[in-house]
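Re: the request from the purification team.
They wanted to know what the chain is likely to look like in 3D before they choose a buffer screen. I agreed to run a prediction and write the result into the notebook, where they can find it.
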Amino acid sequence: MITQNRIDEIIRLLEECYPDALCALEYEKDYELLFAARLAAQCTDVRVNTVTPVLFKRYPTLESLAAADIAELEQIIHSCGFYRSKARDITAAAGMLIDVFGGKVPDTMEALLRLPGVGRKTANLMLGDVHKKPAVVVDTHCIRISNRIGLVDTKVPEKIETALRELLPPDKSSDFCHRIVLHGRAVCTARKPACNSCRIAGHCEKRGVM
C-alpha cells in the first residue's frame, strides 16, 4: 500500500544514499543542458559529456548554434547517434530561443514543448534543474524502479509523471528523480538488481523476484 509514510521513508533513504542529487549531464549555460539532453536521447550521458565540450567550444553562443553548418554539426555529434535529427533540432531550437524567447530557456512546460526536439522528459529536466520548479523526469530508470517498488503500475511515461506528481512532495520531486537514476545505475539495474544491498528493498514490492 502506498502511504505518505512509505513515500517519505523511500525519499529519506535515497537522500542518505545519494546526498548529491545532480544531473549527470555536464553544462555551464542553461541552454547547454537543453541541447545535452537532446543528444542524450538513445545515448549515454558519458558519451554526451565527451561530445558537448567540443560542440560548445566550436559553437559558444546560441547565435553560432542557430547558424551552424549542419554537416559540420552532424560530424561533431555523430557518435551520439541519430545525429541528423539531433543536429536539425539543435539549430532550430537555438533559433527559436533567440527569436521567440529572447535568448532565454523558457520556464513553463507549455513553452518548452514548443522547442524542436523537446518532450516532457527534457522539459521537466529544465524546469527542475534550471528553474528550480517542481518536476518529474521520467526516464528508463524512473519507469523501471517506480514500477518495481510499487509506486505505479504502468509503463506509460505520461501516466507515471502524473502519478508521481500526486505522490511526491513538490519540493522533493526533481531530486527524487535524479536519485532514482543514480540508484538505477548503481543498484537496481535492469538486468540484475542487487536487492541484498538495496537500501529501499524493504519498501519494494518485487524484491528478489526479477
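For the purification team: The chain has a mean pLDDT of 95.
Please add any questions underneath this entry.
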